[in-house]
Design a protein that fits this description.
alpha+beta, S-adenosylmethionine decarboxylase, nine-stranded mixed sheet, two-stranded antiparallel sheet, 6 helices, 11 strands, about 25% helix
Length: about 280
């Protein structure tokens, strides 16, 4: 079973626990014509460039309580970008922080600038890091385009990547998300006893806000004795207009809408379950 300490930790030296939160976040769209597909790629390029990736990682750093020391970024031709952020593991002015009292973190406000794109971002903390890599992809004959963002937030010490969980999910308006959270290593209490985790957790869902829990259907696969937690989630309600890029779905006949919906659901099921499935036809 996972090991927990008293609410207020009294440690011998530095907290050496490494807490890693990893995401695969997917956006799925139907773009019927080459022109619509090109516009979708253009939209991705505009919305998810290095500058906006930098803003997201800056906000994540603020949410988890890390201090940014340096930023470097680069956009690529024809697509993509990289960002590196060097930050210290705690703010310059330390705050009284108890990891055993972690609560679900914030979600973006309507006017908050966040986004991502087919780019790469790496934010280095002192002994820790934040990375984002983005990938556009399309089905060869189903007119379905996908945008994937791989995110890893790994911290060492008292700061926790779980505080940025809700912010990242809502920033991407994600259709499908797979998440892994793992606590590795150990720190030591003042009496010499090793501490392999410093906060209670039975599921990544423990740290999600109510709005997220209502929007998504979720499946957990956890290995408690190893402090490994895995959650998969997908948007609960299917609305074709959410996925059609460009014109609204009403431009299509009923038969076309049914075919498009079936293809989209099939594609998303394969992504969610991470395996190829037989076609409906």
């Amino acid at each position: 079973m996972a090991q927990y300490s008293n609410p207020k930790l009294r440690l011998h030296g530095f907290n050496n626990l490494t807490k890693s939160l990893s995401f695969n976040i997917y956006d799925v769209a139907y773009a019927k014509t080459p022109a619509e597909h090109a516009k979708y790629i253009e939209y991705i390029d505009e919305e998810f460039n290095a500058e906006r990736l930098t803003q997201i990682l800056t906000n994540v750093s603020s949410i988890i309580g890390a201090n940014i020391l340096n930023v470097a970024r680069q956009d690529y031709d024809p697509q993509g970008a990289s960002v590196t952020i060097l930050i210290s593991e705690e703010p310059v002015a330390p705050v009284d922080h108890d990891p055993s009292e972690e609560q679900p973190g914030p979600i973006p406000e309507d006017d908050t600038e966040l986004v991502i794109h087919k780019e790469s971002v790496v934010g280095h903390l002192d002994k820790s890091h934040i990375t984002v890599h983005t990938y556009p992809e399309s089905h060869p004959d189903k007119n379905i385009s996908t945008f994937r963002a791989d995110i890893d937030v790994s911290t060492c010490g008292v700061i926790s990547p779980l505080k940025a969980l809700n912010y990242l999910i809502h920033s991407f308006d994600s259709d499908i998300v797979t998440m892994d959270y793992r606590v590795r290593g150990f720190t030591r209490e003042v009496d010499g006893q090793k501490l392999f985790i410093d906060h209670e957790i039975t599921s990544i869902q423990n740290f999600m806000d109510d709005e997220t829990l209502q929007r998504y259907s979720m499946i957990d696969t956890n290995v408690y004795q190893e402090n490994i937690f895995h959650t998969k989630m997908h948007w609960s309600e299917f609305d074709l207009d959410r996925y059609v890029f460009g014109e609204a779905s009403k431009q299509y006949s009923e038969a076309e809408r049914e075919e498009i919906s079936a293809n989209l659901k099939h594609e998303m099921d394969e992504i969610f379950y991470q395996r190829n499935m037989p076609s409906m036809k």
